[in-house]
Amino acid sequence: MKFARDEKISFKWRLDELYEGLEDPRIFSDLQRARNKALKITDLYRGKIRQYLHSPEAILSAIKEYERIHIIAMKPYLYATLLLASDTQNEAFASFYYSVKEKWTEILQSLTFIPCEFAELSRDEFETLLENPVLQEYKHFLEKLLEHSPYQLKENEEKILGLKNLSGREAFVSFYSEFLGSLTFTIKINGEEKKLHLPEAMNLANSSHAELREKAMNATLEKLGQHGLVFRSILNALLLDHKIECRKRRYPFPMHKMLLDNELAEDVPGILIDLTERKYPLARKYLRQKAQLLGVDNLKISDVFAPAFENDLSLDINKACKIVTDALNDFNRELAKLAFLFFEKGWIDIETRKGKKEGAFCTSFIPTVHPFISIHYGKGLKDLLTLAHEIGHGIHFYLASRNSYLNFMPPFVIGETMAVLVELIVANHLLKSETYKALKIPIVTSLLDDFMLTVFRQSVI
To answer: How far is residue 323 from each of residues 313, 426, 435, measured CA to CA in Å?
Structure first.
């Protein structure tokens, strides 16, 4: 498979395939259409789910219409979310996002009766539905409803929680991203003070130059520390919100909801933490060896995830794209074709710019629209592996889109599998390449740094 010429590749999202702009009349037309359907399904099925237990065709019809409404309304919501992620400081984007979110919440209010009425069914009644051949397409969806049913509240209570979240938990999460996007960090580079935004500062914090890396880390932590009251308030508000909801829903312990969402047994976290803690000596050994590799007696905070080479890899995005697609092509040609779609069709935004949402992520709301990837690409080896990781998420979502809306979203734990696999495929490709064979140690240490983040740091947190 040949890599297309540079001019055929886009490195910013092409959102006009969703809507042509904030004034596109289709946006609120779609939301109104979803609202009308929500009102109709309420008239047809509210208070009748138990009555239709002996009519699986009617239950199937209700589920499909419930799903169809989500698909229609989630497209404007996706568009609004992507716009705001592309520039959290754009007031028009923020206003549009909150307007769409408010209308989507109103639609959800109309649909609240569906999970609530299913939750009122007994386990025997649920089992009857799960065994019915007519409903096999939605068996997994029904199984999830069954698992969550003991913690489902009454319809009016669920509606109140939904409205509360709009101006509570979800508002704090949005504020966090917008606030981070507004901050600037002053760092002296070659004797000149530069004002950088968080993604730019974090790229420097991962620099191969120890002095610059430490400056960037210190400047970032100092500035964030100045706003500690803001971050502490956000965190405390979210923790309190979670505590109140857990108590109201009677979850047996705070992590229980996440275990249900990820379809994990209750003993899994304890087993993972225990296994990880047993390997702490291995992590300490690695950090001691990394200190030797960097030529220092003791690692500073800024050294823990430092790249293990003196000069930046300096892979421009075109070279990075070629490495990812070539690596996947050697492994599986179909995966390489899917990866190339993200570069060719503008499904990925790689720029580091003011206001862009922090971090790297892959977003997929509905199976009828392809995934979108966002990263802050800085030309280093870690940036390449981050790109590979997010491409893995994108491939997973793309393949999962063969399923219907209520069945296509993977749990977080499963979702990471393809992402890590693609990351390892790319790293293995580099290790086998004559061009990059001299970088064996940096490549391996970069992978081990990722394992430290994914396993040991998460366990401590």
So the answer is: 13, 7, 11
Q: What is the pLDDT of residues 374-383, one digit of tens each?
A: 999 888 888 8
pLDDT score for 3: 45
The predicted-structure confidence for 237-253, as pLDDT tens digits, reads as follows 999 999 999 999 999 99
pLDDT for position 336:
96
Cβ 420 vs Cβ 251: under 8 Å: no
Structure tokens at 191: 């004797």
Structure tokens at 221: 């932590």
Rounded Cα distance, 327 and 299, in Å: 33
State the Cα–Cα distance between residues 326 and 59, nearest whole angstrom.
47
> Within 13 Å of residue 173, how many CA atoms lie on the same side as its CB?
12
Spatial separation of the C-alpha atoms in residues 197 and 356, rounded to whole Å: 9
Query: Can you give the three-state secondary structure of 331-362, one letter per residue?
Result: HCHHHHHHHHHHHHCCCEECCCCCCCCCCCEE
- Ranges of H-type helices in 9-151: 25-45, 56-86, 91-111, 113-119, 123-131, 139-148
pTM score, whole prediction: 0.90
* Whole-number Å distance between alpha carbons of 158 and 165: 11
